[in-house]
Amino acid sequence: MDLIALAVPFFLLAIAIEWSWGRWRGRDTYRLTDAVSSLTLGGLSQARRFVALGVGGSVYAWLASVTPFSTWNAEGWWAWVLAFVLYDLCYYCSHRAGHEIKLFWAAHVVHHQSEDYNLSTALRQTSSGFLFGWIFYTPLFFIGVPAEMMVTVGALNLIYQFWVHTEHVGELGWFEYVFVSPSNHRVHHARNTQYLDRNYGGVFIVWDRLFGSYQRELASEPCIYGITKPIQSWSPVESWIHVYRDMFNDMRQTRSWTQRLWVPFSHPAWQPSDVAAANSSLTREDPPFEKYDPQVSVARKVSGAVNLILITVLLLLAQRSEALRGYEAYAWAMMLWFGIANAALLSNADSRLFRLQEGVKLITLFVLAGLLSPQLTLAITPIALIGVSWQFFEKEREEVADATS
């Protein structure tokens, strides 16, 4: 049973409730453009499982076969509780490495790029974490934790983390001393100097208190969200690659072989001495800063939201469809194309390029829908036509504006 897939509808409902609550209270923490970007990256991180399971599964299977320890009895409640706690300790180690070692930060950075903090941010996940993240959970397999138990407690750990991504819940008294909460996790997402690299726990904040990485949220220091070197883009590709690109550029530019080999294992802020000297302009400025917020028309926002809804529904159906067996890579590539097209759509890209992307996107949408069900193709036709009509409406408006200017 895929608990994450089952939880997705509840996640989306909670996002709608949080948005409505914020609007009603006059404290809206959402921007449609940012939320679409976060949800697109979240969808890609789930769809990526169609394509690659990574080497972790093979290593886990090997460890389970050679461990001198007996496999835990999954029927005992104590085993589940212990596995849940130990998994969170492994998560703490993985998460801390994801902030303090550049190679791991290159994958994890995706989750921190949003300059808003709301429940949609929780779903903003990486698609490259499978490359190395599995390393930190190998001890659990070695001591005999069965795979089904690992999958379940891992899913529960991730589901717990969803609700703490909100600005609408303050400090929670004694709860703050034991568990990760919205308050102490806001600190984790802040780019303020005082808050950087703090509060790594997934469920239990006690790990941070034990290992010296805890920081309380301060009323005198409001959280400013995002990363210290903003990417200024909604593109999922840019979100994925920008730290990898910077890392390889540093390795290419430095003349020191020792420092070149150290780059992937260094702190994310570190650069080889000769590269740092030549690129002093890369030095981070402290907040405040301006959010990346290109102004786009209502037509583009509506089209972007419709695109996201369509591909999300199709991917949820695809996870349960026998018709898509053998087309997993195609489904993921289509999701990626939607993300790239939406990034152009929501960034005021050249209208002609945008309409070309939209045309290709609609074709792939109908192909995927046809693979799932001919009836589904008929059902999405009206929605697709609405998206097309919005584009032509915008084109007409642009032409009128040009003629009157």
Key features of this structure:
0% strand; mainly alpha; globular; 18 helices
Q: What is the total tally of β strands?
A: 0
Helix content: 55-70%
Distance between the termini: 59 Å
Low-confidence stretches: none
Beta strand %: under 5%
Oligomer: single chain
Number of helices: 18
Number of separate domains: 2
Write down the Rg. Answer: 23 Å
What does this structure look like?
The chain is mainly alpha-helical and 405 residues long. It has two domains: 209 residues, no CATH class; 102 residues. The protein has 18 helices and no strands. α15 runs antiparallel to α18. The mean pLDDT is 84.
Short account of what is shown:
With about 400 residues, the chain is mainly alpha-helical. It has 18 helices and no strands. The chain has helices at about 5-25, 30-45, 55-65, 75-100, 100-110, 120, 140, 145-160, 175-180, 180-190, 205-210, 235-255, 255-260, 275-280, 300-320, 330-345, 350-370, 375-405.
Mind sketching the topology for me?
Blueprint lengths: L2 H23 L6 H16 L8 H11 L10 H24 L1 H7 L10 H4 L15 H5 L4 H16 L12 H4 L3 H8 L16 H6 L24 H18 L3 H6 L10 H6 L19 H21 L9 H18 L5 H22 L1 H31 L1
